[in-house]
Amino acid sequence: MNLATKLTEIKGVGPKAAEQLALAGLATVGDLLTFLPRRHEDFSGVVPIAELNPGKVTIKARCEAIETRSVRRGLRLTTATLTDSSGKIRAVWFNQPYRAAQLAKTDDEFYFSGEFEFQYNRYQLTNPAAELVKDLPVSTDRIVPVYRAIRGLKSQLVRKILAELRPFITMLPDPLPPSVVTSQKLTSYSDALLGLHFPSDTRQMAVARERLAFQELFELILASQLNKLEQTRLAGYQIPFEQPTVKRFVDGLPFALTGAQKRAAWDILQDFERATPMNRLLQGDVGSGKTVVAGLAACQAASHGYQTALMAPTEILATQHADTLTKLLEPFGYTVGLLVGGVKGQARTLLYRQIASGEVDVVVGTHALFQDKVVFKNLGFVVIDEQHRFGVEQRQKLLAKSSGNAAVVGSSKPTGSTPESRAKRLESRDAAAQRVNGLEEPTTLLARGLLPHLLAMTATPIPRSLALTVYGELDVSILNELPAGRKPINTQIVSPTARDRIYGAIDAELAAGRQAYVVCSLIDDNPANDRKSAEAEAYKLRNSIFRHRRVGLLHGRMSPAEKDEVMLAFMRHDLDILVSTTVVEVGVDVPNATVMLIENADHFGLSQLHQLRGRVGRSEHQSYCYLMMSDTSKPTERLRHIEKSQDGFYLAEVDLQLRGPGEIYGRAQHGALNLQIATLADAKLIARAQQAAAALIASGESLDNYKPLAAAVARNQRLTTLN
User: What distance in Å separates the CA atoms of residue 76 and residue 78, rounded to the nearest whole number?
Assistant: First the structure.
């Protein structure tokens, strides 16, 4: 048996069990061993029936009598009388008629573990697990692990199979180097798995969790540090700093750059001058002016004959970026092209030709920039908006489109060295990095050409601990200041009882010529909860409260063309109110919108609320954000943070502490991190993992000596560089 052994080969895994496991994504022994419990229930310690107290309990008893009957359609009730030397107790199971066959035909003793509670005017044991005392307990008389019920997967089944695998777990080799385990004083990998799947006490669980949490962070951080090391192996365009161009750009702005914008721009311009390609993340709080910083850098690149490609996640955002950059770069005679789905026919063909000839200096688009027909003449700078995991492979795809550098290492611009000397230096770097990495065959950089500089931009403030862990291969610049003249957004938590007053305040803003957002968490009504849906709310507002206003609807099930049509209508002020789901969270820039109502605000994370709030307050007009509670209960302290602070970085830190990284990045990105045990709020453990990863790299020891670790790191390297 090994980690790749199919679960169908394990004793007790029949066709039905195999199907349940497969639906949960569990196919191999390795899959099941790393399917860690989400919590534990303590049923350790047998208590005599006469000494039971309410709560989770375990008794050792015989079944004196048992019966099953139908109490109503679809519900069968099984009741039993359990007895030991100290007394008797009633046990009840709902829709578990097989308990009668299990318990009625034997006088053997069983362990019963369940909730002892007062129900139907008596104390009873509700839905207890039952296992023969003579067998090794799996779900009773122990601290019982509870697993995620993915697609209806039962924890009892997982525990049963793991019991068969227990001897195998004890023989598992440790994936971490002995030097790391020893220096960090960690328990062994096998003991850690046993400590979570078969814990004997809470201390063993704590030691196990520390070990596995450290391993998760170590694998992630090691991948990130190796990615950064990989950066030193790459060659990029050296774009000299040209002060007159920068000064003319800054002097031509209708506003003064903030101190944060100046610092970020200087970071980028310094990176441009280096021989290795820039790999920088520009974090900007909502409305902080990231596009202007990118525009300054694009202007500098264009002044030396290099093209810029800016990729945005949506056509609307791409259009906004193109408009902004056109205004910034037109005075210099530089041309901005927009490549999105709406550009078709002869216009698209002409744009392809202009990009290839170099007539277009800056190309803004969506993923259309990756189409085979798009070829750049001399691409030196790539800007990626809201897509942090854009890495070497994507840049190489863009590189291959540049006819100016696809075949040779040399550039049409002076680099300060000959192609021959540069190639020799790169081959030396390549060999040194390969000795440490050991994850891929040595490659010849002569075939790679020069890679463009990369600037990833995000409007989601990232806590420092998260940035160092997940995006450690990126240098980080932060825009934490708002442009002069921006007024703080008046943010209020409001009760449903104040709804009429809030509608009146919104209507007053509309009467003054402004516009409003109403944000709902659901697209349509869900009988499972009473949260407001965008479709129902749009219908209500359009046909009653705001029948005298123009109300639009926007949600994620609409086609891209439909969403663009609605957003353009709102931007043109053909709509007064936009009822939307969170698709308006990032990138939508309508300065005339001054009021936002967020329904069921207590169901959102702080970072998401801050992003939504950032859709208003984008002009000199006073703006308002109303956070409507789901009911009349008192707002939580968590929600009070967004009412009193407009600092996105502070709110992101609070969100990380309270709700985890998924609330900052959304489920898809959080899931990609594959963290089951570790929390990115554990700064001390992160620091230990960073120190250990750096020490391993410095030692020069190849990861080829640790195949499982190498595989995990390689997987994380792809996750942290690819979207």
Answer: 7
356, 321 Cβ separation under 8 angstroms:
no
pLDDT at 425: 34
For the chain, give every domain's residue range: 1-40+152-170, 45-141, 238-479, 490-645
Residue environment code for 48-75, b if the CB has 16+ CB neighbours within 10 A, otherwise e: ebeebeeeebbbbbebeebebeeeeeee
DSSP codes joined into one string, 232-295: TT--B------HHHHHHHHHTSSSPPPHHHHHHHHHHHHHHTSSSPPEEEEEE-TTS-HHHHHH
Select 45-141's CATH number: 2.40.50.140, 3.20.20.70, 3.40.50.1110, 2.60.40.10: 2.40.50.140
And the tokens for 310? 């800016």
pLDDT of res. 453: 92
Distance CA 347, CA 342 (A): 10
- Helix (H) or strand (E) segment spanning residue 490: strand 490-494
Neighbours of 300 (CB within 10 A): 23
What is the third-level CATH fold of 490-645? Rossmann fold (3.40.50)
- Which of these, 120, 113, 127, 117, lies nearest to 78 by C-alpha position? 127
pLDDT of residue 705: 87
Residue 668: exposure state from Cβ atoms within 10 A (0-12, 13-18, ≥19): exposed
What's the confidence (pLDDT) of residue 63? 94
Q: Are 45-141 and 490-645 equal in CATH topology?
A: no
Segment (H or E) for 552: strand 551-554
pLDDT of residue 417: 31
**How many CA atoms does the CB half-sphere of 216 hold within 13 Å?**
20
Type of residue numbered 76: R
| Averages of pLDDT over each 10 residues, the chain, 723 residues | 92 91 93 92 89 92 93 88 94 92 87 90 91 83 89 90 94 94 96 95 94 93 86 86 94 92 96 92 84 96 95 86 94 94 89 94 89 89 75 58 44 33 37 37 42 86 67 81 83 94 97 96 70 90 95 90 89 96 78 95 87 88 94 86 86 74 46 68 84 92 89 74 38
Edge-first strand order for the sheet with 490-494 is 490-494, 624-628, 593-598, 515-519, 577-580, 551-554
Instruction: Please state, in angstroms and rounded to a whole number, the distance separating the CA atoms of residues 114 and 684.
Output: 37
Closest CA to 382 of 497, 231, 237, 570: 237
Contact by Cβ (8 Å): 340, 366: yes
**Secondary-structure class of domain 238-479 per CATH:** alpha beta
C-beta separation of 146 from 39 below 8 A: yes
- What residues form DSSP beta bridges with 625? 491, 596
- β-bridge mates for residue 126, sequence order: 92, 115
Q: Which pTM value belongs to this model?
A: 0.69
Closest CA to 599 of 490, 459, 514, 503: 503
Number of residues that make up the chain: 723
